[in-house]
């Protein structure tokens, strides 16, 4: 398996809902990333997990909560979101940044709409 | 802080012409420079990358050049085709970081007219 997969593809949620986004890769990559992307803008880094430890939190509001259950899985738990959080949420992985193998490969994304 | 500037923001060319997109980075410790292509509604796809120990890399119609002294790198697409139409993002990263964090440029919307 040479791809990053994400579920669901689309998600519509109310501001009081709790939902989770899931990301999976079976390439043995040791770093995984969550990005938020608005239309025609670059991906905006949210979180980085390196060797299953949270390495970067780019001052993301606490209504977004990441989780890395194991080296292949990455979740993003969502609670009490705002309409401005509507965006494409992208997951990415890279083989081993510590060893200089830092090519990042993106999943197809989850299109999130907050009503 | 770390910053990558990308120009132009939009580029329109005739099919068969060449297209050039330029980026400038601020962090002198950067040594990995990928380029991503993103078609409408799709994921960013890595199309080519270059590391600081080389000055140029080519893959069929796509080439990337790097000038470390000037902190510039550029994407060159020759013989453009309508399917090259997309948003292109450059990025820069420190190779020795344990996170592989990418600093992205703002993107260039390329339109190739048939």
Q: Structural class per helix/strand content of chain B?
A: mainly beta
Number of strands of chain A: 11
Rg of chain B (CA only): 14 Å
What is the H/E string of chain B? EEEEEEEEEEE
Category from helices, strands and their pairing of chain A: mainly beta
Q: Indicate the percent of residues in helices of chain B.
A: under 10%
Which oligomeric state applies?
heterodimer
Helical stretch tally of chain B: 0
The residue fraction in helices of chain A comes out at under 10%
Shape of chain B: globular
Task: Describe it.
The complex is a heterodimer of chains A (115) and B (114). With 115 residues, chain A is an all-beta fold. Chain A has strands at 4-7, 10-13, 18-25, 31-37, 44-50, 53-57, 64-70, 73-79, 87-96, 101-106, 110-114. In chain A, 0% of the residues lie in helices and 61% in strands. The termini of chain A are far apart. By secondary structure, chain B is an all-beta fold. Chain B is 0% helix and 57% strand. In chain B, the strands form two sheets. In chain B, strands 2, 4, 5, 9, 10 and 11 form a six-stranded mixed sheet that branches. Chain B has a five-stranded antiparallel sheet with strand order 1-3-8-7-6, with no helix packed on it. Chain B is globular and about 45 Å long. Classes of the chains: A mainly beta (115), B mainly beta (114).
Write a brief structural summary.
Chain A is mainly β. Helix content of chain A is 0%, strand content 61%. Chain A starts with a strand and ends with a strand.
Please tag this protein with its features.
heterodimer; A: 115 residues; mainly beta; seven-stranded mixed β-sheet; B: mainly beta; six-stranded mixed β-sheet; five-stranded antiparallel β-sheet; 0% helix
